[in-house]
Request: fold
Amino acid sequence: MAHAPKKLGTLAATAIAGNDITSSCLYVGAIAMGYAGPWAVVALLIVAGVLYLFRKIYGEVVGALPLNGGAYNVLLNTTNKYNASIAACLTILSYMATAVLSASTAMYYLHALVPFLPVLLATVVVLGIFMMLSIAGIGESSVVAIIIFIAHLATMALLIVASFWFVTQHGFSLVKMNLSAPLPHGRGIAAALFFGFSTAMLGVTGFESSANYVEEQKHGVFPRTLKNMWVAVTVLNPLIVLCAIMVLPLAAVGDHQETMLSFMGLTIGGNWLASIITVDAVVVLCGAVLTSYVGVSGLVKRMTLDRIMPQFLLRETKKGSSPRIIILFFLLCLSVLFLTNAETEALAGVYTISFLTVMAFFAVGNFLLKMKRSKLPRPETASVAAVSVALLGVVLALYGNVRLNPQYLVVFLQYFIPTMLVIAVMLNRKSILEVMMAWVSRFVESVPGLAVVGRFTLSRMIRKLSSQEFVYFTKGDDLSILNRVMMYVQANEITKKLRIVTVLKEGERMHEDYLRDMEVLDRAYPEIKIEFTELHGVFGPELVHRLSEEWNIPTNFMFIGSPSDRFPYRVADLGGVRLVI
Reply:
């Protein structure tokens, strides 16, 4: 019997996502300075302000629905599978680009220390190492993440302290020169701030990752991970840009954009400091690869449980990891690596648009949660004004990045469209199989043997898909509510049977009018057999899990309406039961 996987504490959960978001200081400052010059400090502070608003947005959404999946999860519980799948595709693309970009960039840094290192092969090795770490289990991989996270923060602190010491010894002449220099591309302050802000939003990539493995975290840890990541980004990124303005001429920043921090270390302290920063860059960027594996595992597992992905991916190890999901992600990363030959611009195109769109989906999901799940208990609430400002900030950043690099949109679509086609096939596979059945039947006269085998195989696949039963727990809803449940099931699920279950107190019975409503509903949806079940007891996690085992129906194929604030349990306590009304 498999042991329950160990839950993550605050430090471990922060470190896994934190390695991704704090690794941004290695590149985002130089990029922002390339568009905003010395005003990049202000642009990064504006980014910190937008991220502060997203702390509340993520806190409300994940607090109300503390299940793996991030934006996918909230859209699944407020709209439908198709909309949720779009968010999931964007998130998966973001993780793929993050893993490949981080691994290849890390190897380019290492190549500076070891010139004979083959970058492409080394990138494959890095992706493979972290694949094996992820298969070993999240508890074991989190130890590696913690070590990387603490070492990275210590190295950045050393660089910042050394920069201020350098200024005390050499004065503020470079600061005055940089502040008086013309802004990049001849833009005014407003344009410089706008494009600096747009590109600096890449510095918060990884903030969404913690939501994709929230089920692996101890209760109450998730909001603390958001706070810790926000503090790290708010302190590190603006401070490092300020240090760069104090110790480097702006022209030198442009010449060393990819390795600005190493060049700062070389300028301030010489080879020893540059080497330390380079090693740190290699290690923390590798840590961002681990973040991708952990985040995508939680997301794809949830999608597989919802039958959007093939069920063979669900096989787990004794330590709770999903090796087939992890191996599939590794292979997808290799395909991206070899197809793009690790070209930074192509990967950045996928990275930028997918990440910012996922953040926008989270803000939209927050609005939907307020409208459709207003009674759902949540530990904190983001105001409508805060969500609106945050969404506007992300949309502006998305527009700014596409305006600066229109080719990014083309590259993004080259990956997004095929991914959505695969998801569309999975969501509509029953209809596709039925069309294939009709097509195969036309071969009866010409090739009877082949047609019979084809029809038998296809009909067996359709029966297997449709055999999955679903459950809806009703609180005595009227016919209009039950009709909405049926429309949701018909539009989003492949099934021929739905159990409608009501849980009553001892001695209670359902009214005869309600039973007649069941008969009306059964006649209205002849393709789905409706079975009404009365149970006596108390509705809660114990009852849900017992029925799941007795009926052999996974809990995420069970639905409820939105619970009131008097409901004594969290939605997550029900083990993945979905909200549909």
